[in-house]
Specification:
Blueprint: H1 2-24, H2 32-58, H3 64-87
Length: about 90
């Protein structure tokens, strides 16, 4: 199960990267550096998901489905902002 979950996570992250690269941010120049940043963001998002879900269910005592919905919405917005400002930002410094 751990191997399968890891493969699923990595496959999902690579798929998400390619969808964001081609369809959301239309940045066909994004390469390995952007992929590494995306994987860091995805891994961080997973850790934030687990932490917030634990906090909301154990300390705030929300039902786990409501907690997961709230956390997912937060992470989706956070990931979009991270992609827009850090990963697929084509502005040259």
């Amino acid at each position: 199960p751990v191997l399968a979950s890891s493969i699923g996570f990595i496959s999902g992250a690579i798929t998400g990267f390619n969808l964001n690269k081609h369809f959301v941010f239309c940045d066909i120049t994004a390469g390995k550096k952007a992929l590494v940043k995306y994987l860091l963001m995805a891994t961080s998002g997973s850790l934030v998901n687990m932490t917030l879900l634990w906090f909301l269910t154990n300390n705030v005592h929300l039902h786990y489905l409501l907690a997961q919905i709230l956390v997912t919405i937060s992470i989706v917005f956070g990931n979009f902002i991270c992609c827009k400002l850090w990963i697929f930002n084509r502005k040259k410094s």
